[in-house]
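TICKET: design request
STATUS: open
ATTACHED STRUCTURE:
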């Protein structure tokens, strides 16, 4: 099976994908930026950081191998943060990010959330394009200071 004809499956978190969640994110972060304390908290403790609070982590699989991931962190009853979206370089361009994004939006709607926000950096042009195509809107300023690299806040209203 070639990469172009590969079937992609998006699944909910399983402990067997915890290492892939960390590795896929470490790869892109270290390519463009530096790993920060907040990254280590989430990547090292996905159960307590994301899942125990009512969030979810999705993993994209090709031939049962993890090639992409994203987290939905519950902030409050009405809000989720979309975080740690990553697709392996070898699997980019196959629409995997779009599938992960769709899973996140569907999850938030199923949870009756009113809004999803994310913090990103505007040098990540393909990611920015995906967010904008998905309906996220840039905020005038970013007040979230957890990440030194985070210079852009975007929000998607689900109502």
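STATUS: resolved
RESOLUTION: sequence designed for all positions
ATTACHED SEQUENCE:
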């Amino acid at each position: 099976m070639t990469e172009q004809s590969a079937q992609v499956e998006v699944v909910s978190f399983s402990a067997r994908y915890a290492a892939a969640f960390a590795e896929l994110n470490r790869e892109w972060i270290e390519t463009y930026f530096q790993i920060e304390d907040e990254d280590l908290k989430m990547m090292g403790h996905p159960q307590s950081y994301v899942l125990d609070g009512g969030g979810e982590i999705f993993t994209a699989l090709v031939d049962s191998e993890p090639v992409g991931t994203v987290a939905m962190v519950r902030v409050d009853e009405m809000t989720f943060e979309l975080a740690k979206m990553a697709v392996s370089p070898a699997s980019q361009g196959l629409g995997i990010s779009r599938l992960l994004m769709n899973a996140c939006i569907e999850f938030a709607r199923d949870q009756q959330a009113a809004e999803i926000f994310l913090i990103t950096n505007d040098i990540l042009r393909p990611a920015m394009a995906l967010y904008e195509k998905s309906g996220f809107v840039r905020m005038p300023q970013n007040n979230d200071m957890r990440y030194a690299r985070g210079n852009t806040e975007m929000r998607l209203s689900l109502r």
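CLOSING REMARK: Confidence is low (pLDDT under 50) at residues 1-5. The longest helix spans residues 18-32.
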